[in-house]
Amino acid sequence: MKVNPRFLREDGTEVFTGNELLIKGALEVEGGTHLLTGYPGSPVAGFFDSMEDIAPLLKEKGIRACIANNEALGAAMLNGSQMGPLRGICCMKSVGLHVAADALALGALAGAHPDGGALVIVGDDPWSDSTQVPADSRYLCKHIFMPVMEPATNQELKDWIDLGFKLSREANVLLGYLVTTNQADGGGSVTCRPNHFPDLNAVNKFNIDTAAIDYERTVLLPPRTWLREQGMPERFTKLFESARRHGVNQIINARPNAAWRAEIGLVATGLGYSYLMHALEELGVADQVPVLKLGISYPIDPVLIEEFSQQVRSIFVIEERRGFMEEQISEIVGKLNQSATGANRTNVWGKEFPAGLQGIPATRGFNPSILIERLGPLGKFFHDPNLALNEPQIDCAVALVQQTGTYNVKIPPRTPTFCPGCPHRDSASILIEMKKQFMDAGYMKRQHRRGPVDVVFHGDTGCYTMLMFEPTKDLMHNYSGMGLGGGTGAGIDPFITNKQVVFLGDSTFFHSGMLGISNALKQGQDITYIILDNSTTAMTGHQPTPGMDVDIVGETTYKQNIDGIVQAMLGQGVHVIRANPAYRETWRGMLEETILRDGVKVIVADKECGITFHRRETRQERKERSEEHTSE
User: Fold this and answer.
1) Claim: this prediction has a pTM higher than 0.85
2) Residues 458, 489: contact at Cβ < 8 Å?
3) How many CB atoms lie within 10 A of CB 465?
4) What is the pLDDT of residues 459-483, one digit of tens each?
5) Residue 606: helix, strand or coil by DSSP?
6) Sign of torsion over alpha carbons 418, 424, 430, 431
7) Secondary structure of residue 376 in the 3-state scheme
8) What 3-state class would DSSP assign to 527?
C-alpha cells in the first residue's frame, strides 16, 4: 500500500475533501499528533478512510490510528492519552457524542496535559439528512463543559487542528471541534504546510512515573469532581486569552468610532459565516456591515461581545439550528444593558427579527439563498446613514431567490435501497414473504400446527435501517438507536404475544449490540436476533470490524468470534446458528423454525458484502491477468 501523495505536500496548493483536511491538519500539527481514534459515522466516516490512505506513514512514524468499538471507548482512549504529553483526536458523528458523553464529561473536568492536547471532532448534520435525530452538538458540549471550536473555511478546517491543540493545552480543556455535513463531504483547495511527527510515539515509547500522577485531576469522584467544576471559569478565562492571542475571533468591518455606531451588526460562526459572507456579497454590503466572526462558539468571550456591542445598535445572530449563540449573547448583552443609558443599549435578534420580519430558521440548516431572503429587508428597515445600499441589487437578489422557489421540478421519487448483491436483500425478501404467510391461518395450520403469528420487527442501525422504506417497511416497526433494537423489544415484550425479531449488524454487535442480547437473556425476552455478518462496516464506507483480522491501517489484529461470544452468553444447550442466506430454502426453513421457538434465539447470516466481494474478485482477476502477461 502506498501513501496518498497529496498528504505529503508541504507547500503549495492541493485539493482535499473536508474529511481529508482533518487528517492533513493532524499531520501538520506542531510537534505531531500521537493518537487518531473514534468511531465512523456520517458525515465524518471519511476521516477513517483517510487514515487508510496514509497507513504506511502512520505506522512508520508511530502515530496510533485505530477505530474503537464505539464512541465511548474512543473518548476513554482520548482521556487516557492525556496521562502523558500527547496530542489526541477522537472523531465521531453527532449521535456518537451522546454515546461518548459520560467519558467526555470526566475528561473535560480533568482537562488536557500541559504539553499535550485533546480534540473531539464532532460531525453535525444540520439538515438531518443522514442522522436519526436533529443534530446540534453544541448543547451537549456545553452540558459537559467542553468548549466548541467551529472552523469556517476549508483552510481553517485544516489549520485549526493545530490551533485547537494549542487552545486545549493552554486553557487545560478538552476542545470540541464542530464540523457540519457540507464541510466534511465538501472540500476544496488549500495551502499546505510541512508535516510534523511526534518524537514520543508508538515506536519510541516512554515510561509513566506513577508516583508523579496527580490523582486530584485523574481520578474524579466526589469531592474532586465538584472541585474541578469550580475551576472551570478560570480555565474558560484562559481560553478567552488564548483565543485573543491566536486571533481565533475577529470583527470584520469594525467601527472604531463610537459616533459611527452601526444600526446592524451580524454574528456568525463556522460554515454559517461563509454562508453569511456569500449572502452579503450578493446583497452588495459585504464590505460595509460589521460582522463578528466567532471561532469559539462556546463559551463566548464577554469582552468581545462588549466591544462589538459598542459598535452596533442591534446584533443579529446568524446560526444554523437553535439559538445557541443567541442565548449566550443575549445574556451578556442583557447584563451590559442594565448599566447602559437608553441610547447606548443594544438589541439582540436571531430566530426572531423586528417588525414581523422572518428570522433565521430554528430547524434544519440554512444556505446563502435563505440568508439573502431574510437579511435583504433589514437594511431598508433600519435606515443606517453609514450604509450605502444598492437597493436595486438587493431587490434583484431577493427576487431571484424567490423566483427559483416557484419552479415546479418533477423528480421521480426514489427511496434508498440495498446495493446489488447485498446479503441483506436475501434476508429481507424471505422475511417479507414469511411475515405474510405467518398471518395466513391455513399456512400456519398446515406447516406449524398453530394459529397465525404477527411478527414485530425492532429497528437498529446499519445498512439494514433502509428496511424502513418500501417494499420492506413492514420489517421495521420502531427505532431507538444503535444496538438498541432488542432493548426496545424488552419494553413491550412482557405485554404482548407476538413473536419478535431484530436485525443486528456485525459492527453494531461489537459497538453495543451484544449488550442487548445479554439484556434480552436477563429479561427473559421472546426474541430472535438475526446478526448480519457481512465482514465489514458497510454503512459508513467498509471500515474493518473487530470480527476481522486486520485494522484500519492494515495491521494484523485479533479476530473476535461473534458465534463464540454469543454462545458464551446463551450457555450450554442453545446453539448459535450460522448459515448463508443465499441458500433461500434452507435459510427460510431455519428462520421459520427459530422465530417460532420461545426464548432468546440467535441466527448469524453469513454472507460477505456484495461490494467488498466484487472488489476482491476484481483484484484477484487483475492479479492473475498480470501474472499471465508477465509469464508470456
Assistant:
1) yes
2) yes
3) 18
4) 999 989 999 989 999 999 999 999 9
5) strand
6) negative
7) helix
8) strand
